[in-house]
Amino acid sequence: MKIAYYPGCVAQESGRELDLATRWVCQALGIELVGFPKFSCCGSGFVDEANEVLNVAINARNLALAEGAGLDLMTVCSTCQGMLQLANLRLKDPKVRTKVDGALVPLGISYRGSVKVKHLLRVLVEDIGLDAIRARVRRPLGGLKVGAFYGCHILRPSDEMAWESGEEPHAFEDLLAALGADPVLYRGRVMCCGFPVLFVRPQTANTIAGRQIADAKDHGADAMATPCPLCHISLDGYQNKAEHAVGRRLDMPIFHLPQLVGLAFGASPEELGLPRHLVPTGPAVAQIPPAPPA
For residues 178 and 176, what is the distance between their CA atoms, to the nearest angstrom? Predict the structure, then answer.
């Protein structure tokens, strides 16, 4: 399988462990990732609020780069997924299309709208398939209780994302079960992490994050996992502040989606960048039985 790889901003900077784990897992599965150095930021929802046409044009340019190579595009961020997929949909509006085409002409770029945008989660579950994932597992996660945290943009708006229910998704839990983990169901798994208001209403954002972590913990989770690096920032990077906001100790390891896949496939914590996390993942990893001798 060959696909254009859109890492987004965070996975190339503060969240480099996500890029590291993604590349390890894709290599293990025979997924060829094609990079495009000229990809730009997706706008992260903020540009969209200020100028919808500009946001669509930014993402149409990204999509056009993949289209020029005849490839579909894979994301590793729920927010990037939302922005790129919504751009595809908004371009079906003739008024938006005319304005965006006009913005791209000076760049010598045109986009026909042929690129499909898929998050890594969907690639693993649908394109690779759970049977193939199970067959690749060398170190089953041993019943580690994991609360999936989807984030907003990979699910909603449900009619526009055209994938899983925004209220009762199951793909992430299905993947965790295929890896040998014990998925934990809790209400907060489909709620917001608080990141969109983190830098303007930090107390509100940290309270939101703290409540979601506490919800997973109260339902028995040993760890959480997310397909979104922005959610990871809220849940891992700001967990100490979230603890103060909700007035309780949380101490919850937060994994990136491909890190758990990599662990189950036999990668070491170092190969997956786990030492970069602020909340130590060691206690959760220690619960996973060692891989059987080769």
Answer: 5
For the whole model, what pTM was predicted?
A: 0.95
Structure tokens at 146: 């994991």
The number of beta carbons lying within 10 Å of the beta carbon of residue 94 is 8
CA 168 to chain centre: 18
- pLDDT band at 48, cuts 50/70/90? low
The answer to whether the beta carbons of residues 15 and 259 sit under 8 Å apart is: no
Structure tokens at 91: 């371009």
Contacts of 160 (CB under 8 A, 6+ apart): 85, 86, 89
Could you read off the pLDDT of 13-33 as tens digits, one per residue? Answer: 999 999 999 999 999 999 999
Q: Quick one: tokens of 83?
A: 């922005």
Cα(103)–Cα(58) distance, integer angstroms: 9
Query: Is 52 a residue whose pLDDT tops 90?
Result: no
Instruction: Quote the distance between the C-alpha of residue 69 and its chain's center.
Output: 24
Torsion-angle region of 139 (φ positive above 0: left; ψ -120 to 50: alpha; else: beta): beta
* Tens of pLDDT, residues 141-172: 988 999 999 988 888 777 777 778 767 899 99
Contact 212, 228 (CB under 8 A): no
